[in-house]
């Protein structure tokens, strides 16, 4: 076991995948010699050469379109978009081509590709570097959508995504790259080296797509979260001393519905937390599922804690960011205390 940041875990996953399968290639802006804007691909070009890890022009449409062609003809490309906010020029290729290729070819072609994107706020990136667009992908049939919250999961989920025969959107909460973040921006940063989830096996392993994990068990209420919000939820629960289930979805599509239903039926109360905007956010889908499957178990309405329905502000970042105070307020409302 080695203590790794999420950046190092992702780099290690790439390294192992490329070493195990010569069809795996890495491409994107500055991923080669520079090693990526966050260094998630550091050293790969030097080790595997310029034909397996190479820089792409500043064209997200071109990056995604080229990766789709490579995947259709037998390679397993891992394309990096520098920030999730920049993926919009390539969104048509993702939706109309990558997600539909298996269906439109009646299974003759598949699209085994991964599109990695740093996502979320908490780094003073403002409106063009802080968006959380996961709901735009979960709406599209044919795509899988993954958001890890720890280095251990980031490595295992990325290796599983690379093995998958269909396109996977791999969203990396950039605020978690170097350590867990509980939403208290005014406190010292805790590195992954001091967190148990920073311990990452050196060998090749996978974390199955579509399986949630319980980060904490309890009976008072259920909190469903993913990415950075898992750590925020944990902080709020611990500060209030509440006996709560905290479910980390890890994969939004496919979704682990049984884990959600089992927990909510047990506790009778539920809060959904995500950083993306409230309206039409992925939390709305979760609430609909809970309403249908757990209606007779619910003691109170399902609550959502999310970002505002505005662009991500720079000056008011910590008001927008769904921090522990907002989660704590929702917990008190759910418990009627």
Pick out its properties.
globular; single chain; 7-stranded mixed sheet; alpha/beta; 14 strands; 337 residues
Oligomer: single chain
Could you spell the SSE succession in H and E letters?
EHEHEHEHHEHEHEEEEHEEHEHEHH
Number of helices: 12
Arithmetic mean of pLDDT: 96
Q: Give the helix/strand class.
A: alpha/beta
Outline the structure in words:
There is one protein chain. With 337 residues, the chain is an alpha/beta fold. The protein is 34% helix and 18% strand. The chain contains twelve helices and 14 strands. The protein has helices at 6-20, 44-48, 60-72, 91-98, 101-104, 134-138, 151-163, 228-240, 257-267, 282-294, 317-320, 324-335, and strands at 2-3, 24-28, 53-55, 76-80, 114-119, 144-146, 168-173, 199-200, 213-216, 221-225, 244-248, 251-253, 270-277, 303-307. The strands form three sheets. It has a seven-stranded mixed sheet, with helices on both faces. The protein has a five-stranded mixed sheet with strand order 9-11-10-13-14, with helices on both faces. Helix 8 (228-240) crosses helix 12 (324-335). It is globular, with a radius of gyration of 19 Å. The protein starts with a strand and ends with a helix.
